[in-house]
Design goal:
The complex is a heterodimer of chains A (about 400) and B (about 325). Chain A is α+β, with helices and mostly antiparallel strands and about 400 residues long. Chain A is built from 11 helices and 8 strands. Helix content of chain A is about 45%, strand content about 15%. Chain B starts with 6 loop residues before the first helix and ends in an 8-residue tail after the last helix. Classes of the chains: A alpha+beta (about 400), B alpha+beta (about 325). Bound molecules: flavin-adenine dinucleotide. The site of flavin-adenine dinucleotide (FAD) has 19 residues of chain A, from strand 1, strand 3 and helix 11.
Chain lengths: ~400, ~325
């Protein structure tokens, strides 16, 4: 067991930090420190290209697809330095972290060559088409249909809560390709271009006042017959494997964002004197502990997966960070008091970072598998308790 | 960076688990509780014999030359069985003696003696059976023999670790530095946190086993979502406690900058997680969990003892508040 890094790894840290600092204080100074997922999408797309041009976009990928074959330690270091340098949220988060690794694992050589470099260099920004009006936690309830017609798949149906669909070039879709099937059987995993008449995106305003997610309609939308991952009817396994990649190295970058949020909260508590309150101090200390433990939980699970195994911390990680962040939002409002409920913005519904966190973090315990679903997974898969009864009408 | 046990550490974990599961049985632990000593003498001899007591001491004084990670592994295995042995305070005392180069006293302890540690305002664990007393005084420690202290003990709630009020009544045999006091605390905090981790994991494992067997309403109660979710929440706490304990152990072994923060985090988090899990264990067992006969109360009481030994969770969080720059508490 060892937490420290080697000298060579520390040298890599300096190299990464130097490059990032130069980029984010030079040509990309305007995106430095951006935290919103929807701010300056065009500039952030250029940022993706700039990263890729120097092979800093997907460093863990094989060199032939635009990566650097980076070791786990290097990926950890890069994620930390990226956040420390104030790098903005990756516009292509879903491409880099979810569909990219899934294509690496399940794609044919042609698919890898076609899609991976385009993900690494920001040409293809991706979104996720899983949820539907009738299929949320229970993804087996998917009704969107697809069938073969000539050299294409044709897709009919509706997805919902599609994050960032308004900026995306491609979407990965779970669709029912066997009309007789129910539940997790008979589904296929399709890769679909967004820029076509058959695809319509309609914004949904969320409780923060922003609009990150969308309804996505498929009305005889088409994609080439080759754009399927895994065999027809075997999409469920691919879809679930993709969710496993959610706990990759990017979690460390996410944690650096959390660090900034906690630092803001500490700053606010010092500024208004609540840092002297013994009860608030206890809660802030608990938040500090929770954040640190997230890092070490992530290092445990990343070490295990680099060794080709798994660690129980991988089961608990989602609920751990989601709860932590939601509590941080609540603590922020306790620290800010009534002052946190008003904003200087006139004419638009917009709040500064901490009150925004209070609102936004209600989503953290919902997306990516709700807390209740996470608890079911822990109980059934990690602890071996009986599975829930499932019933589904056809 | 590789945050997983080495092969050697995995082997130590296996050996320690086997030893405690084999020897620290409920019957033997209860016998040690009943005689008031809180010490299973045969188990204590085994621990000395295997080099587990001095796991973190240098070889030239008879130690095993390993570090805090290995010490935590052993304490975790002891905690899993709520073993009745004076391990934690003895190991903390050894660290203090080592910090000040007291090979003479280390040899006494590694020869089988029991040492205890009384921090300012705190009680001495296993004080009634200790041979060597380390007592916090004037920013350091004084070391006294049995005949130089007054030991007052009543009944302790956690009978696996009887507490005593210790007062120095005669001349100490040695005075140790502030550095030694720190070393004792650091080892003590890691050992308590690891004990708590092992205990919490046992609460989860034993409860999972029970709810898979127990039938009510025509099904095993482990199929009820209210029960599954409470057990899942226990696991969420335990996995964080595990990260905390081994982070702290590594941080001390590697002399990391954030070692102080890691130690306070581990002690506060793991002890609280244990208390949560032990409480849930009683609840999910129903009536049988409330009996003297069932072992649930051993865990519940030891969890409470782990929370207060060597500083309460609130005190450790307050220490963190200071470290992260929250300034002073408002008057
Ligand atoms: C901000 C945000 C962004 C999102 N982005 C995307 C995206 O990009 N792509 C995408 O496909 N989806 C996305 N989602 C959708 C998200 O994955 C779903 O909201 C989520 O899976 C829950 O589904 P649901 O909303 O239908 O709620 P439901 O499944 O209807 O759940 C309602 C409540 O019932 C509980 N519940 C359901 N089943 C059980 C059970 N078996 N046991 C106990 N409790 C249960 C849930 O925990 C929840 O509390 C996003 C959601 C949000 C909030």
């Amino acid at each position: 067991m060892k937490l420290g890094f080697t000298e060579a790894e520390e040298a890599f840290r300096v190299e990464a930090a130097t490059w990032l600092t130069a980029a984010l204080s030079g040509p990309f100074a305007d995106v430095r420190g951006v935290t919103s997922l929807v701010e300056m999408p065009e500039r952030r797309r250029e940022w993706e290209k700039y990263l890729a041009a120097s092979r800093w976009s997907c460093i863990g990928w094989p060199a032939q697809y635009g990566g650097r074959d980076a070791t786990l330690a290097q990926q950890v270091i890069f994620a930390e330095e990226y956040a420390r340098a104030g790098g903005p949220p990756r516009l292509n988060h879903l491409g880099i972290e979810l569909i990219g690794p899934t294509i690496l694992a399940y794609g044919s050589d042609e698919q890898k060559a076609r899609f991976l470099p385009a993900i690494a260099n920001g040409d293809h920004i991706w979104c996720q088409g899983y949820s539907e009006p009738g299929a949320g936690s229970d993804l087996g309830g998917v009704r969107t249909k697809a069938w073969r017609e000539g050299g294409d798949w044709v897709i009919e149906g509706q997805k919902v809560w599609t994050s960032l669909a308004q900026f995306c070039d491609w979407i990965f879709v779970i669709a029912r390709t066997d009309p007789e099937s129910v539940g997790s059987k008979g589904l296929s995993f399709l890769l679909v271009p967004m820029d076509q008449d058959g695809v319509t995106v309609r914004n949904i305003v969320q409780m923060t006042g922003e609009s990150e997610f969308n309804e996505t309609f498929f009305d005889a939308a088409r994609t080439d017959a080759a754009n399927i991952l895994g065999e027809p009817g075997q999409g469920w396994g691919v879809a679930m494997a993709l969710l496993g990649f959610e706990r990759g190295v990017s979690t460390l970058g996410q944690q650096m964002g959390f660090r900034n949020e906690l630092d803001d909260l500490i700053e606010a508590a010092r500024a208004n004197g609540s840092a002297g309150d013994p009860v608030i101090r206890q809660k802030i200390a608990q938040a500090e502990i929770g954040l640190r433990l997230m890092r070490y939980g992530a290092l445990r699970m990343l070490t295990a997966s680099a060794d080709g195994g798994s660690n129980p911390a991988a089961f608990t990680y989602k609920i751990q960070w989601a709860n932590w962040r939601q509590s941080l939002g609540e603590l922020a409002m306790e620290v800010l008091g009534q002052a946190g409920e008003i904003s200087d913005a006139h004419g638009e519904y917009a709040f500064s970072r901490l009150p925004h966190l209070f609102l936004y973090s209600r989503a953290d315990t919902i997306y990516g598998g709700t807390n209740e679903i996470q608890r079911n997974i822990i109980a059934e898969r990690a602890l071996g308790l009986p599975r829930e009864a499932r019933t589904r009408a056809k | 960076m590789r945050f997983a046990f080495t092969d050697e550490q995995a082997m130590i974990a296996e050996t320690a688990t086997d030893l405690f599961v084999g020897e620290a049985t409920s019957e033997r632990t209860r016998a040690a509780m009943a005689d008031g000593s809180g010490r299973d003498v045969a188990l204590w001899d085994s621990l000395s014999g295997t080099g587990f007591v001095g796991v973190h001491m240098p070889g030239d004084v008879g130690g095993s030359e390993l570090g805090m990670v290995e010490l935590a592994i052993i304490a975790e295995a002891a905690g899993r069985q709520v073993a009745a042995v004076p391990l934690i305070a003895t190991q903390a005392a050894l660290s203090a003696l080592h910090a000040d180069g007291r090979a003479d006293l280390i040899e006494r302890v590694l020869g089988g003696q029991v040492a205890t540690l009384a921090l300012a305002g705190g009680l001495a664990p296993h004080g009634t059976i200790a041979d060597l007393f380390l007592i916090e005084q004037d920013g350091g420690l004084v070391v006294a023999d049995r005949d130089a202290v007054d030991v007052v003990a009543g009944t302790t709630m956690d009978q696996t670790r009887p507490l005593a009020q210790v007062t120095l009544t005669w001349a100490p045999i040695a005075t140790l530095s502030a550095k030694a006091l720190d070393a004792a605390k650091h080892t003590g905090w890691i050992a308590v946190a690891a004990d708590a981790l092992g205990g919490a994991q046992a609460c989860l494992d034993r409860t999972v086993e029970y709810v898979k067997e127990r039938q009510q309403f025509g099904q095993t109660i482990g199929g009820f979502q209210a029960i599954k979710h409470r057990l899942a929440d226990m696991m969420v706490e335990i996995e964080q406690a595990r990260s905390a304990v081994y982070w702290a152990a590594c941080a001390v072994d590697e002399g990391a900058e954030d070692a102080e923060l890691a130690l306070h985090s581990a002690k506060a988090f793991a002890a609280d997680a244990y208390a949560t899990c032990a409480g849930a264990m009683i609840q999910l067992h129903g009536g049988i969990g409330f009996t003297w006969e069932h072992d649930a109360h051993l865990f519940f009481k030891r969890a409470q003892a782990d929370r207060t030994l060597f500083g309460s969770s609130a005190q450790h969080r307050e220490a963190i508040a200071q470290i992260i720059g929250l300034g002073a508490i408002a008057a």
